[in-house]
Amino acid sequence: MKFARLASLLWCGAVLASSPAFAETQLKVYLSSQGQPAVWRKALDQFEAHNPGIKVTIELGGATSDLQAQYLNTVMSAKDSSLDVLILDVIRPAQFAAAGWLSPFAGRDLQSYLRPYAEANTVDGKVVALPAFADAMFLYYRKDLLDKYGLPPPKTWDELAIAAKKVTEGEHSQDLQGLSFQGKAIEGAVCTFLLPYWSQGKTVVEGGKLTFDRDAATKSLALWKSFAEAGVAKKNISEVATDDTRKEFQAGNVVFAVNWGYAWALSQGDGSAVVGKVGVARLPAVAGGEQSSCLGGWEWGVSAYSKHQEEAKKLAEYLSSPEVSKFMAINGSLLPTYAALYTDSEVNKAAPWFADAVPVVRTARARPVTPRYNEVSEVIRTTVNAVLAGVTTPADGAAQIENRLKRILR
Amino acid sequence: MTVTSRLEQVAERVETRRAMLSRLLDPDETTLGALLLAPAAVLLGGVIVYPVCKLLYTSFLDLSLTSGAPARFVGLANFQQMLEDPVFWQATWNTILITLITVPGALVVGLGLALLANLPFNIRWPVRLSLLIPWALPLSFAGLIFAWFFHSEYGVVNDVLNRVGLPGAIWFNSPRLAFAAICLTITWKASSFMAMIILAGLQTIPRSLYEAADVDGAGRVRQFFEITLPLLKPTIVVALIFRTIAALQTFDIPYMMTGGGPGTSTATLAMYIHQNTVSFLDLGYGSALAVVMFILSMCVTAVYLRMISGREGAR
């Protein structure tokens, strides 16, 4: 008797809880711990205010793109329904779509976004994710030091090496490095390799086929190695990850740094030694080549296993909207995914160099698009790391990349 | 039908039921044995036999979650790919080398520590506690801590070297130095485990044996080799089995210290399995690699088990 009463009470409770009047949908957004979650939280609060009945919580993941991918790989391959909306590095949508982990946005038109992001989020004609923010690699430089020695921002890597030598020798400082870039075996090292490689007009994959140019690859690896050998970059450059570059530049110990857009706000924030002394320019080219940058940026995907598809898509649409893009540009120095925002007066007040960044993002090149990107990335980044550590020569390294990529992309 | 015959029928039914019940409540030896073994068998089957069989089966499949294609039976293709894979060979070799260096290393250091801790101190707990701490520390923490120790710019190792007038090294920039740093860390971590097991063994050796040896005029060294070591042998073999299997599965410390770098020169087999399954989602190839590691562990265990049973037979 008692049991029956209890059961009926429970049943009533369940009916009430699931009826629309009492429903509260809980959505969980997956974010990177280094991806300014506090700023995103403010955007999410706005969403909650406009959508009563939907509560959004944040789950924080690994600090780097690789660690996040590893975590998401385990969650998604277990068909876990606990995450609804995921932030994904621009290189991931292809892999996630191939694995069937993303819920496509049927009939969505991406024309209002910058073209590289419309392309990165469209897989086999389907829109699989929506752009969160744009990014590309830039050359950060110490405006004050370059002005002091009467040097313009370099247009080629050779000019950069000469300028770096001149400044570091003139400053007589033990701590001052000429150039900082990413030599650790992390995702950033893939871009390190590709920058001078692309600058020679070469591609890695075209139409799903490997178009690897071994000579260009050798040249690219040799260029970075020569920076370490000539003392332009520090000797332990093979230990340097993206955020190390950012920290050392911010501490005033670097003349030139290769880094993403996020480094700007931090270099102008509290505790920075270089406030007002930083310039941002396009990355240099190899002699006779074109200036090219690596396309970055992040996307919002909706998990195919989410139990709240409709609400999750609504949230992804909101997070990808021009309003949020502008909000994040002003408050988080994240590059907008809409061209018009780059010249928006409020945005330019917060980050003046955004005005010149649009052509860089537009022409930035995407890393090879393939579902097996993780393997491609691993081959390139460990080889860059091995060459910089002196374990392999640039020529052997290029041959290894070619052989291993052939096996992955056959 | 008469009343008596119905009563007989009922009595018969009751009798058969009671017989069934009594067979269940008071089974013969074989049934009892099977009943008692059943929970363990089900548990082992569920958590060991089934996963291992499934692993073996997966190792014959082309199963990659990134391809979106369904699993396909490919026979030994994954194992053939392994033979041509330089990273596999390097990782396997590194794993074996780590085992060969750190297991004896940890044994020697651990034995020394255990002998020290077994000395008749007044206050023993600080010594025992300091033995316990490295073992109680999670592996990945130990890896992180030592990664900082060996950091070329901020690390304490280079700082000490500089202070005594030696040049510091960029530890993780050279395959050999990085490997040495990893082996040192593993030895440090594993020594405390060895020391604790050996210390427990030392305490089972009766004091009277040493007193008798003293009376007979045997020196300290002689006592160690004639009494301590032979009586410790069973303990040491058990410690070695645990340690060797753990060493073959080395993952956390190199993962946190070098991530397998520079290049892939300090990657271990466990790291390579993790990379193929978790990062690349190539479950077929990852399973094949895991099968190799499983076989490797089985071989080592078999050798040790033989050592133990051989000794017992000689007794």
Automatic annotation (TrEMBL), chain A:
Cleavable signal peptide: 1-23
Cellular location(s): Periplasm
Annotated keywords: Periplasm, Signal, Transport
Keyword Transport carried by entry: yes
Domain of life: Bacteria
Transmembrane residue ranges: none
Protein family: Belongs to the bacterial solute-binding protein 1 family.
PANTHER family: ABC TRANSPORTER PERIPLASMIC-BINDING PROTEIN YCJN-RELATED (PTHR43649:SF34), ARABINOSE-BINDING PROTEIN-RELATED (PTHR43649)
Protein name: Sugar ABC transporter substrate-binding protein
Natural source organism: Bradyrhizobium iriomotense
